[in-house]
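Wed. Picked up where I left off yesterday with UMP kinase. The coffee machine is broken again, so keeping this brief.
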Amino acid sequence: MAIISCGSLSSLTPLNTLLSSSSSSTSLFSGKLDKHLNSISFERNNGKMKILNCSASDNGSIPDPMNHSRQPYMSRNLSPFNFTSVEGDISNQSYRWRRVLLKVSGEALAGDQAQNIDPKVTMSIAREVASVTRLGVEFLIFQVAIVVGGGNIFRGSTWAGCSGLDRSSADYIGMLATVMNAIFLQATMESLGIPTRVQTAFRMSEVAEPYIRRRAVRHLEKGRVVIFAAGTGNPFFTTDTAAALRCAEINAEVVLKATNVDGVFDADPRRNPNACLLDSLSYNDVMSRDLSVMDMTAITLCQENNIPVVVFNLNKPGNISKAIKGERVGTLIGATWNSTTANV
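Structure written out below (tokens, as returned):
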């Protein structure tokens, strides 16, 4: 890329001539120049280009490149010139979420239960995540983190007490099961060209990174998908609690809980054919009615940190991308679809 700097007014080269004669300047100034630039002049001196005068039609100042404040959404908008490389600026579209955490249970990964992990399910998840992350590749519109369960391989609470196995040891085995699922999901995503990192709650440096909050956030800012494995790293805590915890730590805006049902119903739909799907709920509704959405620790953590939860059906094509984009799907807990205000 050519070096652009300020210089004196001499040996002016017209913009069109300069762009046509330099491939590097063409890539730098790709977009619709005529809509945003009033005038621009260049100087060519010993093979180097210097910008002499430049004015824009839009008001505003160029962002300070040294200002690296951590925000859930980091735009690459080159204000005030607003250069775009595609027709239509997708960064101007309104999306409810920018950084999301997707919780995928182990049972959902098992699919039809014929085997521990159904490759069709992991591929379906990877394709839908790819569809939204590639949509935001120019402007980093969506940043996606994932927490996976391990119930399809081993559930600690079920095996505790068997053959002298205490609950803590059983839970640690369950954490290892989540790592297996995470590595499988990572391989599937990277086969589609999605840069993915796995971070574990305890060190397994040969197969994954250790969980470091700042490193996880940096991966997200670079457009990578981060998969959190091994739960919280502590026994007696579920992966739902791990999802709520990681969501709060990385400043994600919502927990998207992918399940095998369409959302939260007022009764068990398998027993009552007249059960109605609930559009939204408060945190207190979930706790007072003892709804089996997430465990109480996870719900309480979400409530204390004003983190909404979306419960939706993983098995319906398009639901993951809809949930990530903030479109109406399933049941919303802790907020309403028409407002981002927390609903306690």
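Quick read: Residues 167-191 form the longest helix (25 residues).
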